[in-house]
Amino acid sequence: MDKIEFDQIFLPVIFKLSQTADREKFDEIASAYDITILNLFQSQKGELFKIRSPQKRLNAADCQRLFEDWIKDKVPDEEGVWVYYPWAKRILHILDKDEFVEVRTSRNKHKITTGEQNSLFNKKIGVVGLSVGNAVALTLATERICGHIKLADFDTLELSNMNRIKTGLHNIGINKAIITAREIAEIDPFIKVECYLDGITEQNISGFLTENGNLDLLVEECDELDIKLLCRNEAKKLGIPVVMETSDKGMLDVERFDLEPDRPIFHGLIGNIDPSKLKNLTNEEKVPLIIRIVDAKNSSLRGKVSLLEVGQSIGTWPQLASAVTLGAGVTTDVVRRILLNQFHDSGRYYVDSEGLISNKNVNDNPTFNNPFAPFDLNTAKETASRFNDHPVTYIPDVATVEHLVKAACQAPSTGNDQPWKWLYQNGKLFLFHDEHRAYSFGNFDNIASNLSFGAAFENLVLKSNEAGLFIKKNLFPLGSSSPLVAIIEFSQTEQAGFEKVFSPESVRVIYERTTNRNPSQAVEIPESELELLTEAAQSIEGAELLMIQDKEQMRQVAEIIGGCDRIRLLNEDGHKDFVFREMKWTKEEAEKSADGIDVQTLGMSPAQLAAMSLIRDHKIARVLKEIDGGNALIDVSRKLIESASALGIITLPKYSAENFFKGGVSLERLWLKAELLGYAVHPLISPFYLFPRVLHGQNSGVDEGESAKLLDLRQKFIKLVPLEDDMAEVFLFKIAKAEKPAIKSLRLPLHDTFFAGDMTNK
């Protein structure tokens, strides 16, 4: 017998030595030097005497006496049967089938009545997928709730399978169905076992379900989505119930196609998908489907984390022996009751030991502490009144100023937080920093807010120019730490100190400018257009625009951006910021708040959106951080930038609040120019919001590990980009061609941001 043939043997050979042919074959095998022979017949017969006379409480001597009386006129070798296990080179002398089954199932009584047990002996069950299915099949066989099992798996055992498959190392390399069949035979050689060593295919599914009579029930435990659907579609046609256990949170699916012929597969969770379209999917492509099938929001915490890490830090879906063992028990219990017509429902059920046996009264919900009081209009008016000693020369009417401020509020802001409040009082327009609204992890040192104020001011200049007005500003009149950002005056004539207007035509696209995260094309930007973009960004004194177009350099910057995104999202405060403040997870939520970012505008693939829905849970983010996971975020960044025409960076020479305000003006001029030229701009700003925490903030808001990672990313960044640590790093963005977003971020109602105060013009 060669190795291949040996590896496929799974059926025991049963000899009845009262039959001549059997005796001759048995003698030939038993004479081999390496055969082990165990005679278990007498001990099993003794057990039979005991279970048939439970009232007598027979001891060992009683059993010995009864056996001697029984055997005295018989040929001992010809009683019972001899079972040869070729793969183990072992022969056992055991009871005949009926007596063997009677003894082996005696401890089932009366959990299972004799009538029920006899009914179950005639049942035929199929098990597809013999990793989890191994435990299920062995438990079905051990409880002996069927007389015939069909096993299907194409895969062979590897060492990594042995965290949950209880078998010996000597079985590595052997087909899992063969291993399971052998172990069933060693538990009970009278159970009929068939093996499908190619697994389930379109060609053999019919035979698996119907040959020698239809299966009474199918247990499906395979990994391949197309085979899962194929099994269900075919079982549904034949009215065969399907049971699946997932080894996560004790989740068990029951689909009673025998009682509900029109029941949708997987409870209707994935609609009518053609199984052929599920072949050869990548892990990323499988994720959204798996999330739908398992209804991932109800998965265990570690299950969700694992789903996010498949293809990153792990190769496939993990399973624990404890969960597999529990699942096998639950599955067998449910299968038995289905076969006995005691349980009739379909559905999804959880036997969640972690939920049932857990610490009580633990509140682990995130808390929010905003150190700033909400914007107070009276306090703002009082602050503004301190500047009444300098009457203005021209006072536009409120409606005009309101019109201008509305355009200013179209400026970009981090997370669309719209950190501004505008007070028009005594002919002056006061721009206040709403620190309560702007308080966020992303707004370190008010960098983000000051950029937004600068961008809003540029819109104000453009819109005023369109209205025939000139404006000038007094920036940070009470210092950059004061909520009062600027005082703006108007004039009908151009005077010294009033703002010069750059690119008046840009006013046309103030309301069209938007963050464009749609799938893009990496078109080449003509030199003439590059010059226009550079001119716009550098129209502010000291501003510099660096455009990166080298693909390898862009790829390396993408990894740094992704690394920063990952640090931000896995940081406790960064995660709260992102999930509860910045992201709007439904259209209704976005419309109600009129701020933040509608998740549908992120331009993410279904897989990425599905992953995002899981990472909302702060506990998942915490575990991802603990295991140093979440690297899929770097992949997101990498793929995003693969379709970029260029990456752009705007800087000013010194790190200061005023320069970030000026940087805001610069970025808005560039962005509006890009809009006029038909380019899509996508800010990728996380490095510029995080690096200052380690360069200027003594690691503020980041722990030691995050700080070390940021410093490492910073070193990689400055090797690629010639920046000095004391610069104001203003804007990092992707530019490309893309379709206009169908959904634009909303703005707060103007009555929430613009207020008209005293107009006595003292």
TrEMBL record:
<dbReference type="InterPro" id="IPR000594">
    <property type="entry name" value="ThiF_NAD_FAD-bd"/>
</dbReference>
<dbReference type="InterPro" id="IPR045886">
    <property type="entry name" value="ThiF/MoeB/HesA"/>
</dbReference>
<dbReference type="Pfam" id="PF00899">
    <property type="entry name" value="ThiF"/>
</dbReference>
<dbReference type="InterPro" id="IPR000415">
    <property type="entry name" value="Nitroreductase-like"/>
</dbReference>
<dbReference type="InterPro" id="IPR035985">
    <property type="entry name" value="Ubiquitin-activating_enz"/>
</dbReference>
<protein>
    <submittedName>
        <fullName>Rv1355c family protein</fullName>
    </submittedName>
</protein>
<feature type="domain" description="THIF-type NAD/FAD binding fold">
    <location>
        <begin position="111"/>
        <end position="320"/>
    </location>
</feature>
